[in-house]
Amino acid sequence: MKTTSMKWTLMVMVSASMFFSCKKDEDKPSGCEISKANLTGSYKLTALEYKQSASAQPVNYLQYMEDCEKDNILVLGNDGNYENRDAGTVCSSHEVEKGTWDVEGHTININGVLQHGIITSYDCKTLICYVENGITQGDRMTYTLVKQ
Known about the structure:
Helix content: 10-25%
């Protein structure tokens, strides 16, 4: 009888120690922290949403872009330079736009393309950022760029 009791006690102790020693899995770093090294790459604009005010209905601004602009590829180089390449359907004036870009904290600046963009989300594939007060006071333009 003592052996059975000892076995139960041992099983309860092992089970309890396993239960209490198990801790919630820590969130593993995704490796997607917002940095120049991680943001370097080629992106395609997949969504462009405009809200005139916080309470306004969002408007899909991609519908106002030329078809030849919707498939452009934005290349952010690790040297701080960028190129906006006309890909797919080519526009009549298909110059490659070039300039500089940088990221500081959650703010991205792509000179001539996106000034003072606040990054709200980045998962190493999709970059979502917005610019406020671009057209009128209180407005917001939200960009969704997908890494190619």
